[in-house]
Design goal:
transmembrane helix; about 50% helix; Pra-immunoreactive; mainly alpha; 6 helices; single chain
Length: about 130
């Protein structure tokens, strides 16, 4: 048995091709990452530019804002939101798991056909256009 080919990322999940509710594309994801990491870098200046402080602040930004605003400040600036696959609230543990795997980097750069990173798959989340 072979899996049916799909025309666009998210089709298999019943998501629209483009617009609100469609899968977030690479450019927006990278832009959001730069905003969040840049904010963490600037804030870490108060702690002497310590690399561990940068990661801790980046993690805090993700963990605090994802459950409260449905995405980090970078996500929101780039018109993205993080949701569970069933559309419900992400809860508190999903942002923690997702962020820890995001910091490791490797799970975030391995994607499936729907452009979901392993960090999102493990957390049961999906990054969508708002």
């Amino acid at each position: 048995m072979t899996e049916q080919a799909h025309d666009y990322p998210g089709e298999r999940l019943g998501l629209p091709r483009e617009g609100s509710g469609s899968i977030a594309r690479l450019g927006r994801r990278v832009g959001a990452l730069f905003v969040d990491y840049g904010a963490a870098y600037l804030i870490s200046g108060f702690f002497g530019w310590d690399p561990l402080a940068i990661l801790a602040i980046f993690a805090a930004i993700q963990i605090v804002f994802i459950p409260t605003l449905q995405g980090s400040p970078g996500h929101r600036i780039f018109g993205l939101r993080l949701a569970r696959l069933d559309g419900a609230w992400t809860g508190l543990w999903r942002p923690v798991v997702r962020t820890l795997l995001l910091i490791v980097v490797v799970p975030a750069v391995i994607w499936d056909a729907d452009q979901r990173g392993l960090h999102d798959k493990a957390a049961g989340t999906i990054l969508l256009r708002a």
